[in-house]
Amino acid sequence: MAPTPEEDLSVWRRLAPGGMLLVGSGLAVTLDASARRSSGTPLLRWVAEGTAGLVLVNAGLALYGEAMKRRGLHDAATRTPRP
């Protein structure tokens, strides 16, 4: 059974902010790892931190992409046809 437009809108309202938060957090963690690399921190430390940051960025982009898809489905379902 396909989701209703109201369900699509509800999912969009939940996923979009979460996706943006994950992208921002992931970028902050990745940039911190880059700074650690420049300051001479041991290899394993900055590689692990940078990898975690990139995982957060990609998870955020996936959530945000799903949110935009659901918003598009909602908008398409509620659009009034042109005469």
TrEMBL record:
It comes from the Bacteria. Keywords: Membrane, Transmembrane, Transmembrane helix. The chain crosses the membrane at residues 43-64. This is Uncharacterized protein. It comes from Quadrisphaera setariae.
